[in-house]
Amino acid sequence: MKAMVLKEICEIEVKGLGQRQFDLPFKKEPLEIVELPKPVPEPGQVLVRISACGVCHTELDEIEGRLSPPVLPLVPGHEIVGRVEALGSNVTRFRKRDRVGIAWIYSSCGVCKFCLGGFENLCDEFRATGLDANGGYGQYIAVNENFAYPIPENFTDSQAAPLLCAGVIGYRALRLSGLEQGQTLGIYGFGASAHIAIQVAKYWGCKVFVFSRKASGHHQDLAIRLGADWVGATKDIPPERLDCAIDFTPIGEPVRQALRNLEKGGRVIVNAIRKSDFIPELEYTEHLWHEKELKSVANVTRQDAREFLSLAAEIGIAPEVQEFRLEQANQVLAMLKQGKIRGAGVLLIS
Ligand SMILES: [Zn+2]
Ligand SMILES: [Zn+2]
What we know:
- This protein is of the alpha/beta class.
- It has 9 helices and 17 strands.
- The strands form 4 sheets. Strands 3, 4, 5, 8, 9, 16 and 17 form a 7-stranded mixed beta sheet that branches. It has a 6-stranded parallel beta sheet with strand order 12-11-10-13-14-15, sandwiched between helices. The chain has a two-stranded antiparallel sheet with strand order 1-2.
- Helix 4 links the parallel strand 10 and strand 11.
- Helix 3 crosses helix 4 and helix 3 packs across helix 8.
- The protein is globular, with a radius of gyration of 20 Å.
- One zinc ion (ZN) binds next to helix 2.
């Protein structure tokens, strides 16, 4: 099978604390097209022929060495949509030709206190798709049937792809934020995840303020079209204090800005596996006093994926996607790094 693989980490030079790295160009094209053997489904697994895979910022973390893949070469990608082509023994949930999605959670142990308590996202044995196991930048993947999800009919393959990470993790972040109907939500960074999360927050009747690198541009235009009540730059003061905020950016500064703009008793959720620089120093009175909280969101559970896919169908979420061919993955990643993707980038695989 054809796949785009990462053979070595492209380490980025860090020139001191607080250095913004996201707009540095890649030193070379990080992924290479290769021919790999087609996976054979083990007992309990389904073999999926992939038709679309979303491009996520986490791939940049892998390529640039902030998240180390245990084994190279690696097929990245964890927003996978395709059809079941073959079944391993003992598969009961799916049949051949079923359309399925695969998300960031590839497997977990199933027996530890986290797995048993509904926090399989925190399992020590958590394995991530496209990091600990080969992912979706290729023609095929084999996965345990319990870690694949039926895709609601409302979505095309490429629309469904970003729902599987950007959507699901945004949904988990919204849940962890404690956002309630009618409250005010701040969103920092307006990429793939945020543009889906805003549609959920608006559905819940919330007021949404969107902050991004620049005060105007295509991210802001999209935010306004999707119902943002105000848009501004990262350091701007919003018209009202924020009951909750979600930081979707890869950098540290927005965390401090969000804490400053928070209402008393509010909570900031940081949705990033790694930050490319440090969170600047916090001043206790301004950023944390009055019971302000700061919490990260780590990975997703299968329940998040199932709940979110059905909510997305109910709301009629319309992911904004830019489609590319698998072979264009390097170009898409460079565009993502420069903030040039509108909504979510998706690779179409044939
Ligand atoms: Zn992702
Ligand atoms: Zn576990």
